[in-house]
Amino acid sequence: MGQDWTQLERALFDPAGHPGRVAVAEAVRELMRAVATTTAATDDELGEVAGRLRQITAGIVAGDRCVRYPLPTGPFSGRVLGSGDPVFGMFNPVAGPLVVTIEPDGTAAGVLTPSPLFEGPGGAVHGGYTAFLVDAVMGTLLRALGISALTGTLSVRYLALTPLARPLHLSAWVESTDGRKVTAAARITVDGRPTVTATGLFIAAAGPAQG
Ligand SMILES: CCCCCCCCCCCCCC(=O)SCCNC(=O)CCNC(=O)[C@H](O)C(C)(C)COP(=O)(O)OP(=O)(O)OC[C@H]1O[C@@H](n2cnc3c(N)ncnc32)[C@H](O)[C@@H]1OP(=O)(O)O
Predict the structure, then answer these.
(1) Which residue's C-alpha comes closest to atom 61 of ligand 1?
(2) Which family does it belong to (predicted)?
(3) Which end of the chain is more exposed for a tag (fewer CB within 10 A), N or C?
């Protein structure tokens, strides 16, 4: 594996240089969780909170796209830090954020404790969300390996319900490459037990890498 990712992230994206943006994303993440889960506040109280929140939002000029740094292309290893990405972006309140590390052996490992905002049936994590996570960890791995590719076909097998409020351990690796077609695989494990496996057929860009 080539250059250490941490050298690259320092050059391209240093969260320490944007403490306000990182802090506001974290605060909004906490707010979303509180709003979606509170049983203590009355409807009147929440209506009053909504008014105050609208005042805060009115003081921030919104743009059309998430603020994000250009995505580097690999090969790199080490921890991936994201900016505006919805999976691991530290500037994006919707992001887990998933912490992804590209291992020296060319695989990816990630960990995330899912928010109750992503609850699906049976008090477990929504299957669309786990599909989102496995797609992202495979896509990130390919990018880190220097392959700029889009998901062509994603196949997800749900082995068991994925519990909320437990750390999800994600792993991804490349199965095979056939010209522009790259097959990657991923798994989610909770407490040592696999709950989701996935295969992604990624189609590498015919031209230069996209940001
Ligand atoms: C370092 C890390 C940094 C951090 C990075 C963060 C990254 C974030 C990661 C987040 C990750 C998020 C990830 C996302 O969210 S990616 C977003 C979701 N994906 C898309 O939106 C893709 C939309 N589709 C397309 O753009 C095109 O259809 C693509 C690019 C897929 C192919 O169109 P293209 O015109 O280029 O291809 P071609 O027609 O010349 O065909 C070429 C070959 O491919 C085969 N084929 C084609 N399509 C499919 C298919 N669907 N399944 C299976 N196979 C398919 C085809 O048969 C042919 O094979 P053959 O006949 O040669 O054998």
Answers:
(1) 181
(2) Belongs to the THEM4/THEM5 thioesterase family.
(3) C
> Ligand 1: which atom is nearest the Cα of residue 144?
1
Are the CB atoms for 110 and 98 separated by under 8 Å?
Answer: yes
H-helix segments, the chain: 5-12, 19-37, 43-58, 127-144
Distance, in Å, from the CA atom of 197 to the CA atom of 194, rounded to the nearest integer, reads 7
From the alpha carbon of 206, which atom of ligand 1 is closest? Answer: 36
183 close to ligand 1 (CB < 6 Angstrom): no
Give the model confidence (pLDDT) of 40-53 as tens digits: 989 999 999 999 99
Residue pLDDT, tens place only, 7-38: 655 555 666 678 899 999 999 999 999 999 99
- The total number of residues shown for the chain amounts to 211
Question: In the chain, what are the domains?
Answer: 1-211 (3.10.129.10)
Say how far apart CA 137 and CA 3 lie, in whole Å.
Answer: 20
Residue 43 CB-half CA count within 13 A: 0
Mean pLDDT score of the chain: 90
C-alpha 132 to ligand 1 mean position (Å):
16
Query: Does 76 contact ligand 1 (Cβ within 6 A)?
Result: yes
